[in-house]
């Protein structure tokens, strides 16, 4: 599996879990699913960084997103 794809999927999971965490806390619920999603996304991101020789820099993330979208569309 491509490390760019792993990084982008993890990033999407983390971004989608943030509103769920805020929603759960605002309604005085336990954010179980949101916490699981946050942990899964973070784990995928860490796996992608560890698996890539030299790791990812912050500046590499937008390029990785563009490469993944280009692979999906083309």
Major sheet attributes: none
- The dominant shape is elongated
Provide the β-strand percentage band: under 5%
Low-confidence stretches: none
Number of helices: 3
Structural class: mainly alpha
Task: Give the helices and strands as they follow along the chain.
Answer: HHH
DSSP strand tally: 0
Total separate domains:
1
Give the termini separation.
18 Å
The Rg value, from CA coordinates, equals 14 Å
Descriptive overview:
By secondary structure, the chain is an all-alpha fold. The chain has one domain. The chain has helices at residues 3-26, 32-51, 60-73. It is elongated.
Topology:
Elements: H1 3-26, H2 32-51, H3 60-73
Helix pairs in contact: 1-2, 1-3
């Amino acid at each position: 599996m491509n490390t760019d794809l792993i990084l982008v999927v993890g990033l999407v999971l983390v971004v989608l879990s943030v509103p769920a965490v805020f929603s759960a806390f605002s309604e005085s619920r336990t954010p179980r699913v949101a916490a699981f999603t946050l942990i899964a996304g973070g784990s995928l991101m860490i796996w992608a960084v560890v698996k890539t020789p030299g790791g990812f820099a912050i500046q590499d993330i937008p390029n990785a997103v563009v490469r993944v979208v280009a692979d999906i569309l083309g």
